[in-house]
Amino acid sequence: MTATTKLKPPPADGYAHVVPLPTPPKAPDAMQQSPYITRAYSILETYFHQRPDVLVGSDGYLCYDTTDRSRWVKPDCLVAFGVDPDAIFARNGYVISEVGKPPEFVLEVASESTGRQDYTRKRDIYAEYGVAEYWRFDRTGGQYHDRPLSGDRLVNGQYEPLPLNTGTDRVIRGYSPVLGLELHWDTGQLRFYDPAAGDYLPDLADALAQRDAAEALVERLRAQLRRLQSD
């Protein structure tokens, strides 16, 4: 099943009268997943923040329409291009028949309670919905998923595995054509690598460390300038 409708225009009165979808319930082991989901979401949100037509979402339902709740799923993280993020946030979920297209990228983070569904039932639903790429990350190395890192690309309505390789450093690497980024499983962490920049995308901790280092450098240069001016 794929969407063929066009993206609906914003309502004339904004989104004040949009009926939001319910917020999905938390899994019993959500605290184990949360740091990894939050990190992935924040990295991708920062990377795409200058593109107003890109949605990076988390914690909401994804469905084709609202009629069959048995087919509603909750992606841990999704990315959609060429959409109206405000409308989707107002709906509190991603309704494909309303948006007019599925998201291009979905990521699931493994947990004990939901891990098996991620590579069985959910995989089938995402393929049915037309999600171009479906990635799965298991911090345990494959205890909850079928493997530590997996990526699938939709080809003629069916998922085919994207190639992965493991280096001598034991880092598992795969390339996402949709994002233009590599996903790395690195000692239980999920990292995003930008081949064009030749570096990893920073997470919040990295960004704060870079800011502190830059501020310290500026202060050292100011101190040197003050000394030169006093001589």
Structural write-up:
By secondary structure, this protein is of the alpha+beta class. The chain has two domains: 30-200, tt1808, chain A (Alpha-Beta Complex); 203-231. It is built from six helices and 13 strands. The chain has helices at residues 30-47, 85-91, 96-99, 115-118, 121-129, 204-230, and strands at 54-57, 61-63, 77-81, 93-95, 105-109, 133-137, 149-155, 158-161, 164-166, 172-176, 181-186, 189-194, 199-200. The chain has a six-stranded mixed sheet, with helices on both faces. Strands 9-10-11-12-13 form a five-stranded antiparallel sheet, covered by helices on one side. A hairpin with a 5-residue loop joins β9 and β10 (172-176). The chain starts with 29 loop residues before the first helix and ends with a helix. Residues 1-5 have low confidence and may be disordered.
Task: Give a short overview.
The protein contains six helices and 13 strands.
The biggest sheet, with number of strands, parallel, antiparallel or mixed sense and barrel status, is: 6 strands, mixed
- The CATH class of the largest domain, by name, is Alpha Beta
CATH structural fold name of the largest domain: tt1808, chain A
Based on helices, strands and strand pairing, what is the structural class? Answer: alpha+beta
Shape: globular
Question: What spatial order of strands do you see in the largest sheet?
Answer: 1-3-5-6-7-8
**CA(first)-CA(last) distance:** 75 Å
Give the count of helical stretches.
6
Low-confidence stretches: 1-5
